[in-house]
Amino acid sequence: MTVMQRAPRAAIAIRPYEFRDVAALFEAASESVEMVYPWLPWCHPGYALDEAKAWVEQQVRAFESRQQFEFVIVSAEGAFLGGCGLNQIDQANRRANLGYWVRSSAAGQGVATAAVRLLVGWALANTDLERMEVLVATGNVASLRVAEKAGAVREGVLRSRLLLHGRPHDAVVFSFVREANPSA
Fold it and tell me: Domain 3-129, what fold?
């Protein structure tokens, strides 16, 4: 399943992970350690091909069982640009965490913003989620801009909400919510 969107600065698509994505994920993560690691510790110096393989295998199973919905972000030509997804799904409250990352060579081109918009549209059409939350460390300026540009509503700052590299960080919480149906 592919969802395509043409953004002003980036024509991208999102699709669920496939086993063939292991090498591309590894390459993108390896390229992006300096930019991504401060905010997403999984993308660390020494990131190994086995870690990429385990991640992809886990995501294929999780998507099939509807436990998580992680997507690859690809260019119009099919190049691996990053990832986005819905995880930490709370079925009782129909809420999920929404996350994203873009490889260094694709940063600053509108890719993440377009991917977030696609992901929110997919979630509203394919799940019963009422709320998607984006949690961003206050120092992660690029990610804060993505959430804002994608249309998320800024709700506030949560003190010491994220633990990154053993240190607590304040984080901004943003949300996307399903519009209430007044006739329901």
Answer: Aminopeptidase (3.40.630)
